[in-house]
Amino acid sequence: MAKSKDVRITIALECQNCTQKELGSKSTGGILRYTTRKNRRNTPTRLELKKYCSSCHKHTLHKESRK
């Protein structure tokens, strides 16, 4: 059985441009989310990566979202 404090955890990355647009309007486009795994010991801070957003049609900053 796996321990509850595993070193590697699965996280979700959200597009920052889309989340800012969602706050201002009531569009139903949705927010693009990537899932990835990170090591808690190596990266204790929130993860930030540049990924492609299909709703923005460009590479944007994706930040680790709160669960």
Automatic annotation (TrEMBL):
GO BP annotation list: translation
Major location (coarse): plastid
Domain of life: Eukaryota
SUPFAM superfamilies registered for this protein in UniProt: Zn-binding ribosomal proteins (SSF57829)
PROSITE patterns given in the database record: RIBOSOMAL_L33
InterPro entries associated with the record: Ribosomal_bL33, Ribosomal_bL33_CS, Ribosomal_bL33_sf, Ribosomal_zn-bd
Keywords tagged on the record: Chloroplast, Plastid, Ribonucleoprotein, Ribosomal protein
GO molecular function, one term: structural constituent of ribosome
Cellular compartments annotated: Plastid, Chloroplast
The UniProt record lists the keyword Ribosomal protein: yes
GO cellular component terms attached to this protein's record: chloroplast; ribonucleoprotein complex; ribosome
Listed NCBIfam families: PRK00504.1 (NF001764), PRK00595.1 (NF001860), rpmG_bact (TIGR01023)
Family to which the UniProt record says this protein belongs: Belongs to the bacterial ribosomal protein bL33 family.
Protein name listed in UniProt: Large ribosomal subunit protein bL33c
The organism of origin for this protein: Ceratopteris richardii (Triangle waterfern)
